[in-house]
Amino acid sequence: MTLVISTLNTLRLGRKSVFRYPLDPVPRTAVLAASFRQPRFRPSYPVRVFPEGWSAEVSAFAPAAIAAPREQLLSLAAAGQPPILTHALIAIAGRADPLLPTADRARLWRVFRVPVFEQIIKANGELLAAECEAHDGLHIEVPGLSWDGYRLEFSVCGCGRKTPRLTAAEPLERDRSAAAYAR
Ligand SMILES: [Zn+2]
């Protein structure tokens, strides 16, 4: 094991950009996104940035988790030999993007068999909203932004946090009413 596993799940990758892995500790993670930069003096970071996307180099890095724009995750899922992961997928969306459709989530799960965590990240790498381990919406991380076009959930999350979350309209709604009905 050449990589030092961080006990903090937040890593600075660039001036404004902070990459937050949804759980702790951070496993070996390949970040395939041009919004992040590899920190120059911290080769021991478990996170490595590959701004050009998937390549033989990423494959050789053998990531346990991948963070990438959803299109890239879906195209990896469609590849002949998708990478074998053990930890997680982090689906990166932009500010105006709709949340990851349930069908895409299901496809990613079928191929990779690891949980998907969606994050909304600005082009400069700033984290705006992030899904937690409760998988019930994306916690808003930057207060005061307008979230027109998204559905907001204000109930306490399963993770215990009380910050509002962006949620997908129907599938979560259905799960919740099913859960309420079962009570
Ligand atoms: Zn939560």
Label the overall shape: globular
Biggest beta-sheet profile: 9 strands, mixed
Query: What is the CA-based Rg, rounded?
Result: 16 Å
Give me the secondary-structure category: alpha/beta
Question: How much of the residues is beta strand, in percent?
Answer: 15-25%
What spatial order of strands do you see in the largest sheet? 4-3-5-6-7-8-9-11-10
Count of DSSP E strands?
Answer: 11
Q: Helix fraction? A: 10-25%
Bound molecules: zinc ion
Report the average pLDDT across residues: 85
Overview of the molecule:
With 183 residues, this protein is α/β, with parallel strands linked by helices. Helices cover 21% and strands 23% of the residues. It has a nine-stranded mixed β-sheet. Strands 1-2 form a two-stranded antiparallel sheet. Strand 1 (10-12) and strand 2 (18-20) form a beta hairpin. Helix 2 (70-78) packs across helix 3 (102-112). The chain is globular and about 40 Å long. It binds zinc ion (ZN). The site of zinc ion (ZN) has 6 residues, from loops.
